[in-house]
Specification:
2 copies of one chain form a homodimer. The first copy, chain A, is of the alpha+beta class. Chain A folds into 3 domains: about 20-235 and about 415-465, Bira Bifunctional Protein, Domain 2 (BirA Bifunctional Protein, domain 2, 2-Layer Sandwich), CATH 3.30.930; about 255-395, YbaK/aminoacyl-tRNA synthetase-associated domain (YbaK protein), CATH 3.90.960.10; about 485-580, Rossmann fold (3-Layer(aba) Sandwich). Chain A is built from 15 helices and 31 strands. In chain A, strands 3, 7, 8, 9, 10, 11, 12, 21 and 24 form a 9-stranded mixed β-sheet that branches. A 5-stranded mixed β-sheet of chain A has the order 16-14-15-17-20. A 5-stranded mixed β-sheet of chain A has the order 28-27-29-30-31, with helices on both faces. In chain A, strand 30 and strand 31 (about 565) form a beta hairpin. The radius of gyration of chain A is 30 Å and the shape is globular. The mean pLDDT of chain A is about 95. Chains A and B meet through strand 1, strand 2, helix 2, strand 3 and strand 4 of A and strand 1, strand 2, helix 2, strand 3 and strand 4 of B.
Chain lengths: ~575, ~575
């Protein structure tokens, strides 16, 4: 490819709304162009990256036995009503009416459509297992689209769906996808982790996120440097500390803490470490009748250590809270605790409350909590002596660096990541409501056991940039670079020798299947180099009159500090060897 | 590819709403699956065809110097308001509101978006010419979607847009695309014609349709078997017959033609050939003031020969009618002709009317027309003697078989076609209203000269089937077949020898880059053959125990009546040779 025949549109400045590096750099490198909030044209330079991502995904999906199809972008509402998602999904689901006032949606995913295909096409267990995927435009009407392709409204996703006759077979299909995802992410050339994720109501361990490591990532990834344990924050279990509980050393006393309503303020006032304090969270559950009228409510008090953070997903697994909970209202809190939030605690309640202690809190001694009286706390509190043992003990909190790894093989570390892939065992979540069944060997209809498997095709380049950039621009891994090699001739318009050498090198590399760009625009060296460093082409060869007199060119990898001189005659072979590696 | 790893879902019956062969066969072959009216999932078998079409289009577009990008499916209304299309386009334009009640459209084409890109990215004449294209999902909310992929609502289109600094350069860009389209359609392996089409108000000859020949096609294609002349019906010029007009032989006389209001009925009654009669069409034009109020109207009488059809596009080019016309109302007709439609003619008018004669009519002698009196016609009518020469003579009619070719090199023939591609010179139709300018060499801003170039990616397979099918199913050309070769082993589950030979042949062909399918489903021969004949794979090799005992296999092209026996050892080489040809 020659630059004069391509559309290169680098910009000096990024738009003001570009908050993250990938957004800024993709805009400046002319890879994307904003059309509306969260809606981008993939410009030629950006589309080349996307197509390379697609090709890798497609190859590995096919290798894993998945079969590609393409489902419509505009989907009739009827199917979405069968699963209830048409009503349940919020305004993220873009709804349309056609000229006959029939309801449609723009697909955000395609579970309904693929399940509809399966219930028509896969009639016998003999046709199973089966995995159908597509690489197709999706739309989610995000309330606040931002970060360029990272959280856009229109995007391209690879979504795959597996259909199996039973849970054991579904698990094998899941494993096959999980392995295919490792192959895909390995080929991208990015640092990533496959992390265990929460699989929601279905249970089991069949949910993994594929996170590209980047310190700007929105997600915390928990891992153990001494083992292969990795999970997201919701899934990472905080083990119970090695018991037993320390003996009580202090007497309980009420202390004045005027205006100090946070654990940090109270600890500072009392001169105690934060990990001696206990935070209170008040929740409520409602028992309803058939019509949804509330019959009675139960108030809950959840306790975690002052330096820990409550994790809502974990809270939602506590027996009694697992059917749904809400925050307690202020009137409910006053009714049960006798005071407003800020000074709450488990002692001196006005009405009974179910108390759940985090595993860590359950083993604490001499701790501090609110006194259920404004401007007062209690210190020296001890379980069993000052209050009964909690009704339940559970893992309620986010893990922190240094916690024991759940696999018992070291201590946890935390880094940040960007979720680009997700493999998920669905069970019969869609097949049952849609009555999607096949005839099993015994002649009886059974619902499909399903899995779904996504990769954010247009998010991946953004994640790659978050991980790989410097002050000059993007640094693409070879596998997904828009061009792998750029040939930069200096003074091509003045020197026939430079022109001939540059064109010959370009043609030789192109003939060898290298994705090479020849910059024949006639830009000055500084501007030319700046463009390609911004765009992030990993390998650069510079040809100049002076160098060619000695038969030399300059090679520089995008990460190299300095160029390396080498003979013109050798550079093509050198590049081929380096790219094959 | 092995059939057991693919999704083959052939059907015995086509749905009742499948009216045309391509729709029936794509449904029966499991290539598409209906999701809603005019909305289809491209199933794995169909998607393979679409991907091959895309690949050919992409290669040739790139070769012609066009650069690929991808514009959003969901587009903000603002740009569409700039050109007025948001209001002017009818309900075919699918309109949506997002969660913030902002207006969007689902793209039916992308002129507005690409022009917006150009006005931002192409600032100097040095960046021109430029051609941007995409292969992307489109939506047109057809009132009556039908014929499967032929007239769907959601479809894939390749749309390209060229930007040039002046009309001469734009013409070269147009020619380059026109040539690229020939290369593309040649590669599809279909019989097609590039036909001149009407370029509307812009004038000039820069509009061509690419029509796949099929007797079920909706469009009439006019061509000259003795030259390369080809045009669509609107564009094909009906030349003036070689003059001069014959001398009058009859006296004009009024004849009773009770109840005979059509030319055919009158000709039969009078025992004259239909080409001696003349049809009348009454139109009107309105002169309006600035507010659109009608100041005065002009009534027109257009005359074509009784056996000819009026062409509305041609009528719209007659001076005086080219700013817009309408059909005259019955009161206007009575006011000017003194009678109701059915017996109208140019003689004995009550009020003046502008008379335009078709070129053919202008040279007729002794003709028949209405007498402007119910149940009466005139015969033996002659220009100059019975009425003045017409105010104007013009080409008003559709050409018919046997007309002189406009290039003077033979006589015209007519066949039917399906429009799959269109190249069109737009001029400044979009750049002017959108103020899309570049700085020319003289430092002044000028609007881009544009062209647009479409190919119906998902319509092409349907057109290919209309052209190539028989009672057993589809017959794909090699280039776009879902699989090029199918290997059909008989009794693979019983015979290790058959299995081994089939797998080896499959692997050998696959390694040579042949797109080969091995049917390892274990179907009985009849069902297996019927499936592949329905699906339309062009080359089939059958392996059986009996044949292999003699080292023989059977080869059959989808169009062959009988199989050809050949040695197993030679079939791979034979196929490679045949496919390379």
């Amino acid at each position: 490819m020659k630059a004069s025949q391509f559309l290169i549109s680098t910009q000096k400045e990024a738009p003001a709304d570009a908050e993250v590096a990938s957004h800024r750099l993709m805009m400046r490198a002319g890879m994307i162009k904003k059309l509306g909030a969260g809606i981008y044209t993939y410009m030629p330079m950006g589309l080349r990256v996307i197509r390379k991502v697609e090709a890798i995904v497609r190859e590995e999906m096919n290798r894993a036995g998945a079969v590609e199809c393409t489902m419509p972008v505009v989907q009739p509402a009827e199917l979405w009503q069968e699963t209830g998602r048409f009503d349940k999904m919020g305004p993220e689901l873009l709804r349309i009416q056609d000229r006959h006032q029939r309801d449609f949606v723009i697909q955000p995913t395609s579970e309904e459509v693929v399940t509809d295909i399966a219930r028509q096409e896969l009639r016998s267990y003999k046709q199973l297992p089966r995995n159908l995927y597509q690489i197709q435009t999706k739309f989610r009407d995000e309330r606040r689209p931002r970060f360029g392709l990272m959280r856009g409204r229109e995007f391209i996703m690879k979504d795959a769906y597996s259909f199996d006759r039973d849970a054991a077979s579904a698990q094998r299909s899941y494993e096959r996808m999980s392995q295919a995802y490792r192959a895909i992410f390995d080929r991208f050339g990015l640092r990533y982790r496959a992390v265990a994720a929460d699989s929601g109501a279905i249970g089991g361990d069949l949910s993994e996120e594929f996170q590209v490591i980047a310190h700007t990532g929105e997600d915390a990834i928990v891992y153990c440097p001494d083992s292969d344990y990795a999970a997201n924050m919701e899934k990472a279990e905080a083990l119970a500390p090695a018991g037993p509980r320390s003996a009580a050393a202090e007497a309980m006393q009420k202390v004045a803490t005027p205006g100090k309503s946070t654990c940090a303020d109270v600890a500072a006032l009392l001169g105690l470490p934060l990990d001696r304090t206990v935070k209170s969270l008040v929740l409520a559950t409602d028992e309803t009748d058939e019509r949804g009228e509330v019959l009675r409510s139960q108030v809950w008090l959840l306790l975690v250590r002052g330096d820990h953070d409550m994790n809502e997903i974990k809270v939602g697994k506590v027996p009694g809270l697992d059917a749904g909970f809400r925050f307690a209202t202020v009137p409910e809190i006053i009714e049960h605790f006798g005071t407003k939030p800020g000074y709450l605690g488990p002692i001196g309640l006005k009405k009974p409350v179910r108390i759940v202690a985090d595993r860590e809190v359950a083993l604490m001694a001499d701790w501090v909590c609110g006194a259920n009286e404004e401007d007062f706390h209690l210190r020296g509190v001890n379980w069993g002596r000052d209050l009964p043992e909690p009704h339940a003990v559970a893992d309620l909190r986010n893990v922190v660096e240094g916690d024991l790894s759940p696999d018992g093989r070291g201590r946890l570390a935390i880094e940040r990541g960007i979720e680009v892939g997700h493999v998920f065992y669905l069970g019969t979540k869609y097949s049952k409501p849609m009555n999607a069944t096949f005839l099993d060997e015994d002649g009886k209809p059974k619902p499909f056991e399903m899995g779904c498997y996504g990769i954010g095709i247009t998010r991946l380049p953004a994640a790659a940039i978050e991980q790989n950039h410097d002050e000059r621009g993007i640094v693409w891994p070879d596998a997904i670079a828009p061009f792998t090699v750029v040939v930069c001739p200096i003074g091509m318009d003045r020197s026939a020798e430079v022109r001939a050498a540059a064109e010959q090198l370009h043609d030789e590399l192109a003939a060898a299947g290298v994705d090479v760009m020849l910059d024949d625009r006639g830009e000055r060296p500084g501007a030319m180099f700046a463009d390609w460093e911004l765009i992030g082409v990993p390998h650069r060869v510079v040809l100049s009159d002076r160098g060619l007199k000695e038969g030399q060119v300059e090679y520089q990898h995008r990460r190299d500090k300095e160029p390396t001189r080498m003979p013109l005659a050798e550079v093509a072979g050198f590049l081929r060897g380096r790219l094959a590696a």
